[in-house]
Amino acid sequence: MIRLRINGVEEDSAVGTIAELLAERGIDPSARFLAVAVNGAVIRRAEWPEASLAAGDAVEIVRPFQGG
Amino acid sequence: MTDPFLIAGTALASRLFIGTAGYPNQQVMLDSLEASGAELVTVSIRRISLEGYAGSLVDLLGGRYRLLPNTAGCVTARDAILTAELAREALETDWLKLELIGDRETLYPDVEQLVHAADELVRKGFTVLPYCNDDPVTCQKLADVGCAAVMPLGSLIGSGMGIANPAAIELICSRSPVPVVLDAGIGTASDATLAMELGCDAVLVNTAVSKSHDPRRMAAAMRGAVEAGRLARLAGRIPKRRFAEPSSPQLGLVGS
Predict the structure, then answer these.
(1) Of A32, A42, A64, which is closest to B43 when you measure between CB atoms?
(2) pTM
(3) How many domains does chain A have?
(4) Which band of pLDDT confidence, cut at 50, 70 and 90, is reported for residue B188?
(5) CATH no. for residue A10?
(6) Which of B29, B70, B90 sits opposite A62 (nearest CB)?
(7) C-alpha R_g of chain A
(8) At A23, is the secondary structure helix, strand, or coil?
(9) Which chain A residues are Cβ-neighbours of B86 within 8 angstroms?
(10) In this predicted complex, what is the ipTM?
(11) In chain A, where does DSSP find H-type helix?
């Protein structure tokens, strides 16, 4: 288990990659209009299956929402 | 009569931009967007844990609109730039409404960081439309760093106070090398018409429509308002006079 910060919340997770993290949270990795950043850098969709997560990583998972 | 409207070389069919926030429900939002006739619609970028509209907003919009993601709420250039990059990744568009807030109570832009972030985002290939203050110096700086348009506020976001400084907006419009979009503070249709009469190329509204008593009807009003204001601008208004100028001829008066 590693300690990650996911969308601002500290959590322990057993996942190794971004794709696994999305699956763990019930997010379909093929869903459109999603974006992920790790430690302030955007990780492109094609890299999700390979991009590995390390202890202390800060992950942002975002999507479009209402806004002006 | 053609009146082309271009931003970054892209022709837009409507001079009304509209936001997706604050509607009573999804259906009213969709109906209002349709009634507005807008082509460009703004969205925010938020963490996936937020509750809100069920389902994907973008799916709901059904590919009918050109989406303009914003960096609403960002207070640092770093956060705005990351949000912009996430937006580009999520929506596959280079277009960006750049917001960098310097004061949480007034939501006034932090001009210093705004210009810096705009500069960096333009270098990264974004088409940047910055929300800014009604200051001709700010607008010139933003144009100088390569923004595709400038979006000065009429008054505070969501305040409905209209155009606080019409002279400043008119001055900005007269000098701007890029399109000017009046963004923030519109309260009702006449505010949007005034913006266009002052020389703005477009108007962005959100709260004025979504929080009105009848958003669908207000959206239709805004559509007419922007069209009327633009026509009046192109038609060339009469000057203001201190004294009367009779419209009926002075000769041939009965009893003269």
Answers:
(1) A64
(2) 0.95
(3) 1
(4) very high
(5) 3.10.20.30
(6) B90
(7) 12
(8) helix
(9) 35-37, 42, 60, 62
(10) 0.95
(11) 18-24
